[in-house]
Every structure is written in structure tokens, then in C-alpha cells.
Write a structure and sequence with these properties.
Gi/o-coupled serotonin receptor activity; 9 helices; G-protein coupled receptors family 1 profile domain-containing protein; 66% helix; Rhopdopsin 7-helix transmembrane proteins; serotonin receptor activity; GPCR_Rhodpsn; mainly alpha; cell membrane; globular; three-stranded antiparallel beta sheet; 370 residues
Length: 370
Amino acid sequence: MEAANLSVATASVALALGPKTCSSSPSPSGILSSTPGNAVLPGREPPFSVFTVLVVTLLVLLIAATFLWNLLVLVTILRVRAFHRVPHNLVASTAVSDVLVAALVMPLSLVSELSTGRRWLLGRSLCHVWISFDVLCCTASIWNVAAIALDRYWTITSHLQYTLRTRRRASALMIALTWALSALIALAPLLFGWGEVYDARLQRFQVSQEPSYAVFSTCGAFYLPLGVVLFVYWKIYKAAKFRFGRRGRAVLPLPATMQVKEAPDEAEMVFTAHCRATVAFQASGDSWREQKEKRATMMVGILIGVFVLCWIPFFLTELISPLCACSLPSIWKSIFLWLGYSNSFFNPLIYTAFNRNYNNAFKSLFTKQR
């Protein structure tokens, strides 16, 4: 997500060498050509280096893979009735935001990275739309990760009170709040004239470096959901460890006599009559349930870890730079920006890798298409 000083790339060995701006017309000196004597003549663009071509190819593949993989998840959720429930609606909301990142944000960002003269050549209006969608979709993707973590937390810690009906209402509320908050952060500069600077003489547009806007946007889009997911996963880990530990102690071999015994941590009666097989069956059932919940907990942990690694470099830069009036080299800004975008690629990989139902649904979908 680009909040301030969005980076651009030149046709050089590196991706970027200057701050990202938006302009309604190209610079007169933006179209250049190199000569054997290192002189530059107008009228031609400099040739791309091999390294630049490789980087651009990788970014194009990243965009295509992000779009197709998230689209596949959405199609699967829509076609399979078993996925029309929680938590798959949260996964669908995440996939929608990630599809929009791949379809609307990443391609225009790549065009801007490759612009000659580090200019935005697509007009001021499209620049407004692009930046708004950038902030909206990336913020929604981040908050959807927080919503998935909250759903897992309530499932483990309040599994009796957190009924299916309550879960539906909570997930719908979290999805609505996610998109509403994301829209507020994205549209605040346009609605309230906060944070936008336009230089008519230079015909350049960029998001302001005002410290107040930097704090508002970065905290609302990243640091607040980061605090939520870290706190929630710490509670999930403690609750899961305690719950699984109690379950392990609750299922014990019973003597081969008829008796009725109340399980210590379950509201059900265990009836055995000379049948160690019954006890073994219940133990295997609990073991299957434990494995399912452990996989879900591990999935949330990996999802949060990848989210933090992908986005924290970018948001640290976006918060510190305006406050200290310093600037990071543009090559690093581009790297941090695309590292954040890559989170939209990793999200569907993670939550489908830990759910066998998705893998079976994918196989069924492609088999039927044949």
C-alpha cells in the first residue's frame, strides 16, 4: 500500500531511483537515449538491462499468480455449498481484497515503476483512483487477517458460547467494519482535503508527508491490526495449549467393567461396558478433533507471521520518514512496497495448504471442467 512518497523505478539496473509522483504530463527531459559515449540524446528511451527484464518478468508473474490463485479460491467458495459459512466468508473477504490488489493496484504500480523520467503519465484523476484503491484494498487485506485471527480465538476460548449463529453475526460485523475502516482511511485525503498536495506548476501530485496523516494512516492500516493479531495469537496459543493438555489427561483407559463416568472437561457421559474399543474410539475422535484445531491454529500463526514479515518494513518506513524528515533510498522503498504486495499472494497459499477441503474442492473443480 502506498501512503506517502511512493517509489518509482527507472530503466536501470535497479528498480527505482526517485520518489513516486503523479503527473498529468511527461517531463520534457523524461525521454532519453544513450549513446556509446554515455551521451544522452532526446527522442529515445534507454534500453532495459537484463536484470531489469528479469525483475519485471518476476513482478508480472507475481501479479498473475496473485490474481489467479485468489480468483480460484473465490470460485471454489461460491461453487461449494459447504464453504458458504464461517470462517470461509472471512477467507472470501480476504480473497476479494487480494484479487483487487492484483487486478487494480499492482499493474498500475508496475507501470509507474517503469515510467520514463519517474512521471505518472496516466492523468491526475486516475492517480487519485489508483492511490485510493491501493490504500483501500491493502488495508482491507490486512484487517481481514485480523478478523480470521479473532474468529479462531473465539472458537478456541469460547467454543460453547460462540455458537454458529453468533459466529455468523460476528463474522458479518467484522467484514463490514473491515471495509468501512479501509474506505475511511483510503478516502480521507479526498473527502477532507487532508494529506494531499498538488503542484500545478510542476503538474505533480503526491500524498502528503504530514506527520498527522502518516500516523493516522499507518496506525489505522497496520499498527492497530498488528497489535490485535499479536495479542490474539498469544491468547490463542495459551488457550490451545491449556485445552489440548486437559483433553490429553481426560481420555484414560478404563477398566473392563460396566460403569458410567462423567468426562472432566466435556458436558457428556461416557458409557463403557467391557469395551475398551469404545474408549479407543473416543480417544481417536478427540485426537482427530485436536489435530484439526491444531492445524487451524498453526495456519493462523503462519498467516500472521507472513503478514508481519511482508508489511512491517514498508510501514516502518512510512511512519518514520515523515516524523524525522528523512528519506530512505528509493530502491529500498520499491522493495518494501512489493514485499507488502506479495502478502496478497501468500494469503491464499497459506489458508488452503492447511485445509484439505480446499484441496479436494480444487481437484473436484478441475475434474468437472474436464
